[in-house]
Request: fold
Amino acid sequence: MIKIAVYGKGGIGKSTTVSNVAAALAEQGLKVLQIGCDPKADSTILLRHGEEVPTVLQMYQEKKQNLKLEDIVKIGYKGIVCVEAGGPTPGLGCAGRGIITALEKLEETGAYEKYQPDVVLYDVLGDVVCGGFSMPMRNGYADKIFIVTSGENMAIHAGANIAMAVENFKNRGYATLGGLILNRRNVLREEEKVEELAEDFHTSIVGTLTRSDLVQQAEEQKKTVLEAFPESEMAEEYRILAKAILMKVREKQEVSNA
Reply:
């Protein structure tokens, strides 16, 4: 089982990227589990044609010990298994708690045994990297961390904070940084700035995504680009990115097994 966590600041296109990568992996015949780790709970919405997935935190608060796997898992496009961690009522409680609860309950309800995913994708908000939001980096949940960024200063700043958190955990045997994903905003010196960020943290840009109207058009249809425009160049970019991410994770596994 390959476990990948994708981080990035809010609004950077992280969930869209993760959902399209999930679709590309499913196209290859892989069983994919996507876990949304954002209080907005909209990570998997394009895989479900706009239909929301009940959040783990909400269902656990309602059902407590009677929580069942079918309460928190829904199946989306190409058989992708969809889960949303959720978050607390605004102003009450820690948003990171939803992630911790979700990961615990997925294990307790036997999600991995039932669905036996080949790939687990964690879609994680990266504006803050506190205990809850750093959870997918720790305790063996993810093998590799990938950061979605553009050349915008706030995205670069968030990317640096996330990379620093990964760096701080590296001596504990936790997930390591797999690389950056450049989601273009067509700002000045974009590629140069993201390359500088990669150099600062001894990593690389594993994939680049063009700024394309097809992404918004697919979202209007409540679909991924791969479902809405499967023959497009944009869909092909997501397929190439998915392969590059898999290659990075497998490189690490081969080194670990050597």
